[in-house]
Every structure is written in structure tokens, then in C-alpha cells.
Design brief:
By secondary structure, the chain is mostly helical. It has 33 helices and no strands.
């Protein structure tokens, strides 16, 4: 094939090559090269150099604003666009760019005012479409929706509204159609992966985001999502390792990436540094407020949690859920029916919505709703549908155990309570009382008594003693009922406790006679009766001694 060449190669002399090489070394890179590579820091650096060396660049301010916007420095971009808009010769379209900056800074009213000053266009319609969503104006939202055109930008805008309204499957369907029509739009994989993440398909999300990262390994959004998937699939340490990759690659001038790193590091470190980082990010990253509420709930600081959600108008399911949880917690703490009713309504709104009814959080919400309504058979229907996802979740097992116990399913309730590993939960009176009751109902009163013996003397131990005394009596476990009433009577010599002890001791005596209780127990019953000063003690002991003498059972 080489021999078939018909045209000679042009040979340059060495001097020519040297001059060309020298010329290339001195030649500055072109501005468009930086924008094509998405190197906005490089573009800004070049623009600053050209300005400093008095080299004219056409539309210099607009390019600086454009690069700053894409770096996430919306404040700087806004200032640049304001300067451009103040000039008489400026194009009206600059108002739309200015409105975009205001939008990303959360200045929605200013964004709307600026957008309306711009020319009517698909960009203006998209901006007003999203602003209507932010304002919660459904009528205007539908009006701008009808004006969307069959173009990629408008389809993307509609998909993002689906995402923001938690209609993740509809968003995925739109993005997938766009991928089929435009195979070069690799970035759509990032949006699809985000949707799968929101649907709790973390493994699928991971596969999809990896496709995008092959093309853009330094993407802040993609690297952050990968770290979040690792957090859900593995643990905080694995997620933190992934996030460090983002920290290394993210430019210091990329403010959003820096805020994202700071926020998520606290999440991955289980709330370490929450009060130092999250309050500053409440108006920057939406999840910061929600995570701060969760942090206060974990610290049992209900007042601070309520302050954060009090004036929050919920839009997304997580916001509704957190408002429900906070109101439920305060309602139980203060015995407020108003707060409990509000919580029940929030849970029902999420669990009954078409987008959430078949999701795990949606079913948990319905379970919580029925829990507050005390409809425990319905609670169990929803909890059982998601049980496989929470086999090692202490809070789930605790709530599941309570629901089973309320339906008198004592065997399964005991199994659920015993799955709880958290020492904090296991030390709560509510947990101890329910587990004790399960033991008693399952004919294991000794285990309930041992729970009491392991407790320190307190108001909780006194209440547990009362529960054991009465429940054992009802279940015919008279031996442990007698022991409990004996301790109670010594603490408080009330006639009620004496009557309980008397009945339990007589019950044990009857069980001994019937052969259902060891005869050795009779000695303990006599000793317990002698702890009381009631005049009925001696006649009862005489009867017991007479039977013991006849049967040759030692009671001394």
C-alpha cells in the first residue's frame, strides 16, 4: 500500500519546523478550547490575563459571567449581568441570564421580575415554569406547561419538574427517551441515576452513574452521588473515601461542590460536626435543614426540631414525613392530640399518594398513620410488607413488636423485641415493659423477673414490678406474682398489695397441691406471708403448715 502513493510528502526544512514549534509555544490557547473542555477555571484565568495585558476580548464581561455561572459562583455572575444590563446597548436577553442567577441563589421573586423583562422565548417560559413550581402556583404551572415545545431543553425542564415533584419514574421515562433519541447526551445518565437513587434502587443508580463517570470522571454531582450510593449500600467510611475523590478534584472556586462535601461528610460521619456545618447550609442545600431536624430528633431536642419545621411548607415526601415525625414526637411527649392528629394527616398524605404508596417510605408512613389511629391490624399489614428491608433495624423491630403485642401475637412480638440491639432502646421502660409482658404471656415469667432484677432502683423499676405482679397473677404465674407483690408491699404497705400477695400465695399453694408447682416453693410462700403484719397471715400459714405436715413437706 505504501508503494501506491501518488503524491509526494511536503518536506519542511529544519528551520521551518523550529519556527513553527516556537510559534506554537508562544501562541495563547483559545477561549473556546476551555469552554469545550468545561474548564471554566481555565477560561476565567485566560480572561483575567487578557484583561490585565490590555488585550481586547469581544463580550469580555458576558464570558466572565458565563464561566462564573457554570462554576456555581452565581453571586459573581449576577453582579456581572447586572453591570451588563445597566448599559444602554445591552441586549434584553441578559435579563433572562440574570434571572437564572437569581433562581439558583434562591431569590425567586427577583428571578421572576427579571425574567419578565426579558424577551418571550422558550428560556423565559422554562424559567417561569420552574418559578411557578417554587411558588406552589399550580394554575400558572399548568399554563407554562402547555407552552412547552417539543425541543430537548423543554423536555429536560419537564423531566426536572417531575423529579422535583417526586415523580421519579416519569422523569426516568423522559430521560430514557431522550437518550434513545440523542445517544451523545451522556449527561442524562447522571439524571437517571439520581432518580433511581431517590427510588432506593442504589445498586442500579451506581451502575448508571458509572457510565457517566467514564466520560466525565471529575463531575462533582456524579462523584457525590457515587459516594451517597456507597453510604446506602455499604457504610459511612466507604462513602467518605469516595467523597475524598471529589474533594481532591473539586476546584476551590466551585462553591457548590465545597458546600456539598462539607454537608455530606457530616452525614457520612453520623452527625459529627452537625451543629457547626448544617445551620450555615440551610439556605444552600435543601437537605441540610432536614438532616438538622433529624439530628435534633436523635438528640431528643424536640423544641429545636420543631422550630426548624414549624414554618416549613412541605413539598417533597421527606419534608412531609419529617413534619409528621416531629409532630408525633411532640404529641406523645406533651400528650397533645392536636400534634398527633397533624402527624397522622402528614403520614396519610405521603402513604396515600400515587407516587409514594408503593415505596418503602410510603408504606412506613401508612403504618405510622394507623399506629396513631390504634388500628394495629392495619399497621401489621404495612410493616410486614417491608419487613425484609429492616431485619436489623432496631426502631423497626421495636415498633413491629409493639404492633404484634397489641394484636396479642405474643410469640412473634417477643422475637421482634429480642432482635433489638441498641442499648439505649433496651434501657427504655417502654421496651422493658413490653418484653416483660411478652415473657409472661408466653409462660416465661422467670425471664420477666430477671429483667426487673437487672434494673437499678427507680420509678421505672417500681412500675415494672407492678406490671409483673398483675400480669403474672392474670396468667396464673402465682409464684412470680407473689414475689413481686411481696416487694411492692415492703415498699408501700398498701392493702391492695397485701390482697394481691395473699391471693398469689394461696394460688401457689393450690398449684403445689395440684402438683403443678414444686413443693419447695411452699417454704418461700410462708416466709413471704410472715413479712406482712396483717391479721389474716396466721390462719393462712396454719392451713399451709397442716397440709405440709400431712405430706411431710418441710416449711421451716
Amino acid at each position: 500500500m505504501i508503494l501506491s502513493r501518488t503524491k509526494a510528502v511536503k518536506m519542511d526544512d529544519e528551520g521551518s519546523k523550529s519556527r513553527q514549534a516556537s510559534h506554537k509555544k508562544k501562541q495563547l490557547p483559545h477561549l473556546n478550547d476551555f469552554f469545550e473542555k468545561r474548564d471554566y477555571v481555565g477560561a476565567l484565568t485566560l480572561l483575567e490575563f487578557l484583561e490585565g495585558s490590555n488585550q481586547h476580548v469581544d463580550k469580555h464581561e458576558e464570558w466572565v459571567a458565563y464561566a462564573s455561572f457554570h462554576l456555581g459562583d452565581y453571586r459573581k455572575a449576577l453582579q456581572m449581568y447586572k453591570g451588563i444590563a445597566s448599559k444602554a446597548e445591552s441586549n434584553d436577553e441578559v435579563w433572562l441570564h440574570l434571572a437564572c442567577c437569581c433562581f439558583f441563589l434562591g431569590m425567586y421573586e427577583e428571578a421572576e421580575q427579571a425574567a419578565k423583562k426579558g424577551p418571550k422565548s422558550s428560556l423565559q417560559n422554562r424559567l417561569l415554569f420552574h418559578l411557578s413550581h417554587k411558588f406552589g402556583d399550580e394554575q400558572r404551572l399548568m399554563s407554562y406547561h402547555e407552552q412547552l415545545q417539543n425541543i430537548i431543553e423543554d423536555k429536560m425542564s419537564l423531566a426536572s419538574i417531575h423529579y422535583l415533584r417526586s415523580h421519579y419514574q416519569e422523569a426516568i421515562d423522559t430521560y430514557k427517551r431522550l437518550v434513545l433519541e440523542n445517544s451523545t447526551m451522556v449527561a442524562l445518565n447522571a439524571y437517571i441515576a439520581l432518580c433511581y437513587y431517590k427510588l432506593d434502587y442504589f445498586d442500579v443508580s451506581q451502575e448508571v452513574i458509572n457510565v457517566y463517570l467514564m466520560s466525565f470522571p471529575d463531575s462533582a454531582i456524579a462523584l457525590n452521588l457515587k459516594a451517597c450510593n456507597h453510604f446506602r449500600l455499604y457504610n459511612g467510611k466507604a462513602a467518605e473515601a469516595e467523597l475524598m475523590t471529589l474533594k481532591e478534584k473539586a476546584s476551590e472556586s466551585f462553591e457548590f461542590a465545597q458546600d456539598l462535601i462539607r454537608h455530606n461528610l457530616v452525614v457520612f460521619r453520623d452527625g459529627q460536626g452537625a451543629l457547626q456545618i448544617w445551620p450555615k447550609l440551610i439556605d444552600v442545600i435543601p437537605e441540610a435543614r432536614l438532616n438538622l431536624v433529624i439530628h435534633f430528633l436523635r438528640q431528643n431536642d424536640l423544641d429545636e426540631a420543631f422550630k426548624l419545621v414549624k414554618d416549613l411548607e412541605p413539598i417533597t415526601p421527606p419534608e412531609y414525613i419529617l413534619k409528621g415525625v416531629v409532630n408525633a414526637s411532640i404529641g406523645q411527649e406533651q400528650e397533645s392530640t392536636d400534634h398527633l392528629k397533624l402527624a397522622q394527616q402528614y403520614f396519610q398524605l405521603v402513604g396515600g399518594s400515587a407516587s409514594e404508596c408503593d415505596t418503602i417510605p410510603g408504606r412506613q408512613c401508612m403504618a405510622s398513620c394507623f399506629f396513631l389511629l390504634k388500628q394495629f391490624d392495619d399497621v401489621l399489614v404495612y410493616l410486614r410488607s417491608v419487613q425484609t428491608y429492616f431485619m436489623t433495624d432496631d426502631v423497626f423491630n421495636f415498633n413491629y413488636g409493639q404492633a404484634l403485642a397489641m394484636e396479642n401475637n405474643w410469640k412473634e412480638a417477643e422475637e421482634a423485641f429480642l432482635l433489638v440491639q441498641s442499648e439505649d432502646v433496651k434501657s427504655e421502660y417502654t421496651y422493658l415493659s413490653w418484653l416483660s409482658r411478652c415473657y409472661i404471656m408466653n409462660k416465661k415469667p422467670r425471664l420477666a423477673w430477671e429483667l426487673y432484677l437487672r434494673m437499678d432502683t427507680s420509678g421505672d423499676s417500681y412500675m415494672l414490678l407492678q406490671l409483673i405482679a398483675h400480669d403474672c397473677y392474670r396468667m396464673g404465674s402465682f409464684y412470680y406474682s407473689a414475689k413481686a407483690f411481696d416487694v411492692l408491699e415492703r415498699i408501700d404497705p398498701s392493702p391492695d398489695y397485701w390482697e394481691g400477695k395473699r391471693g398469689a400465695c394461696v394460688g401457689v399453694f393450690q398449684q403445689i397441691i395440684a402438683g403443678n408447682e414444686p413443693r419447695d416453693s411452699l417454704r418461700e410462700m410462708v416466709a413471704m406471708l410472715r413479712n406482712s403484719s396483717n391479721p389474716q397471715v396466721e390462719p393462712i400459714i396454719r392451713v399451709m403448715k397442716k397440709w405440709a405436715k400431712d405430706k411431710r413437706v418441710p416449711v421451716m
